[in-house]
TrEMBL record:
Residues 23-211 form the Electron transfer flavoprotein alpha/beta-subunit N-terminal domain. It comes from Methylophilus rhizosphaerae. SMART domains: ETF. GO terms for molecular function: electron transfer activity. CDD domains: ETF_beta (cd01714). The electron transfer flavoprotein serves as a specific electron acceptor for other dehydrogenases. It transfers the electrons to the main respiratory chain via ETF-ubiquinone oxidoreductase (ETF dehydrogenase). Its cofactor is AMP. The keyword rRNA-binding does not apply. Keywords: Electron transport, Transport. It comes from the Bacteria. This is Electron transfer flavoprotein subunit beta. InterPro entries: ET-Flavoprotein_bsu_CS, ETF_a/b_N, ETF_b, ETF_beta_N, Rossmann-like_a/b/a_fold. Belongs to the ETF beta-subunit/FixA family.
Length: 250
C-alpha cells in the first residue's frame, strides 16, 4: 500500500506573527518556519502504519518554492520514503491546492491520502474535503483514530457531544487531528540521512493543472486588543456590574 501525505510550510506555532505595515500579509521575513502541526500528525500516522506492515511506501508532497524543501527533509527524517516538491511561486488557496494535489494523486496512484485537518496559518480546513470531492473518493475528516484492515479504513472522529466512527473503502482521503498521535522527535542523524533520500522537484506547469484564482486577499489586520479586566470584591458586585454595565444579565 502506498500512502501520499500532503504537508505545508507555515510559521512555527511558537512564533507570534506580525502583520506588514501595509496590511498586505503576515511578515515572515526572518521568522522561523516549520511543518504544519496537523500535517506532522498525518506523517506520523503513515509511519506507524508502515511499522505495522500495512504500508509499503510513504510519499510526502508539498507545494511552493525551494524554501519548502526543509519540511520535506523533515518528513524524510521522520520516515517518509520519497518527497516531492511541486514548484511554484504563486500563492494558492484551498481549491487550487486541492486541484494540484489531485494531479499528484492521479500521477502517484496512492491507496490512501493523508493530510492535516487544517493549516494553522489560515485555518481554512477545506483542502482535504475539496480534494476528496475532486477525486470522487470517500473522505473521513478530523481523524483521532485510524485503523486499516484490508481494503477498509475505520476512522474515529470527535463531534459535538461525543465521537463518531466511520468506515470508508480505500482509496480514500483522511485528514488528521492532533489527537491522532504524538509525532516522534526527529534526531540529527536522521536529518543527515534524509539528505540521501529522493526529493523530486516537479514544476507546477508540468502537471497541466488549470487554476482559476477566485479568491483574492484584500487585507490582513491584527485582532483588536482585549480590554482590561475589572476586579470585583464579591459575587454581588459582579452581578451588579453585569446588570448595569455589560447588559449580560437582564
Amino acid at each position: 500500500m502506498k500512502v501520499l501525505v500532503a504537508i505545508k510550510r507555515v510559521v512555527d506555532y511558537n512564533i507570534q506573527v506580525r502583520v506588514k505595515a501595509d496590511g498586505s500579509n503576515v511578515d515572515i521575513d526572518g521568522v522561523k518556519m516549520g511543518i504544519n502541526p496537523f500535517d506532522e500528525n498525518a506523517i506520523e500516522e503513515a509511519i506507524r502504519l508502515k511499522e505495522k506492515g500495512i504500508v509499503s511506501e510513504i510519499v510526502a508532497v508539498t507545494i511552493g518554492g525551494a524554501a519548502n524543501q526543509d519540511i520535506l527533509r523533515h518528513a524524510l527524517a521522520m520516515g517518509a520514503d520519497r518527497a516531492m516538491l511541486v514548484e511554484t511561486q504563486e500563492t494558492l488557496h484551498s481549491l487550487s491546492v486541492a486541484k494540484v494535489l489531485k494531479a499528484v494523486v492521479e500521477r502517484e496512484q496512492p491507496n490512501l491520502v493523508l493530510l492535516g485537518k487544517q493549516a494553522i496559518d489560515d485555518d481554512a480546513g477545506q483542502t482535504g474535503q475539496m480534494l476528496a470531492a475532486l477525486l470522487k473518493l470517500p473522505q473521513a475528516t478530523y481523524a483521532s483514530q485510524l485503523t486499516i484492515e484490508g481494503n477498509q479504513a475505520t476512522v474515529v472522529r470527535e463531534i459535538d457531544g461525543g465521537t463518531e466512527t466511520l468506515a470508508v473503502s480505500l482509496p480514500a482521503v483522511i485528514t488528521a487531528d492532533l489527537r491522532l498521535n504524538e509525532p516522534r522527535y526527529v534526531k540529527l542523524p536522521n536529518l543527515m540521512m534524509a539528505r540521501k533520500k529522493p526529493l523530486e522537484n516537479v514544476p507546477l506547469d508540468s502537471l497541466n493543472v488549470s487554476l482559476t484564482h477566485n479568491v483574492q486577499q484584500l487585507k490582513v489586520a491584527t485582532p483588536p486588543a482585549r480590554p482590561a479586566g475589572i476586579m470585583v470584591k464579591d459575587v454581588n458586585e459582579l452581578l451588579s456590574k453585569l446588570r448595569t454595565h455589560e447588559g449580560i444579565i437582564g
